[in-house]
Amino acid sequence: MPVYVMLSKLTEGGADTIKLRPERIREVDSEMERWGIKVLHQYAVLGEYDFVNIVEAPDNLAIAKASVELGSRGSVHIETLPAIPIEEFMEAVK
Q1: 45-81 tens-digit pLDDT
Q2: Among 68, 76, 84, 90, which is 20 to 30 Å from 20 by CA?
Q3: Which residues, including other chains, have CB under 8 Å from residue 85's CB and lie 6 or more apart?
Q4: Residue 61: which domain range?
Q5: Are 14 and 76 contacting, i.e. CB atoms less than 8 angstroms apart?
Q6: Mapping DSSP to helix (H, G, I), strand (E, B) and coil, where does residue 58 land?
Q7: 3-state helix, strand, coil in the chain (%, to 5)
């Protein structure tokens, strides 16, 4: 299944929600699983983004739909990047 890197930046409202209910993070993970997206790794980070998630999704359309759904709530801005396993990349550039 394709792998994607999701970079997330909380809005002010999103930060308020996480402060009051940090378990909301796991609730969103469960929602994504219902959409067919599996969270492989999840990190809170310092800097331009607040979270980095490594996820598997069936295809670009599934991850795009999830990004739009989550972003439409007004609590987070998401940038999604397709990730190519390094072995596949090396083979492709030969």
Answers
A1: 999 999 999 999 999 999 999 999 999 999 999 999 9
A2: 68
A3: 3
A4: 3-92
A5: yes
A6: coil
A7: 40, 30, 30
Q: For the domain that residue 53 is a member of, what is the CATH number? A: 3.30.70.920
**Token pair in block for residue 39:** 């969270």
Q: Please, how many CA atoms are within 13 Å of residue 94, restricted to the half-sphere of its CB?
A: 6
In whole angstroms, give the CA distance from residue 62 to residue 55: 11
Per-residue pLDDT band at 83 (split at 50, 70, 90) = very high
Regarding pTM above 0.85, the answer is yes
User: CA-to-CA distance for 73 and 61, rounded, in angstroms?
Assistant: 19
Q: What is the pLDDT of residue 26?
A: 96
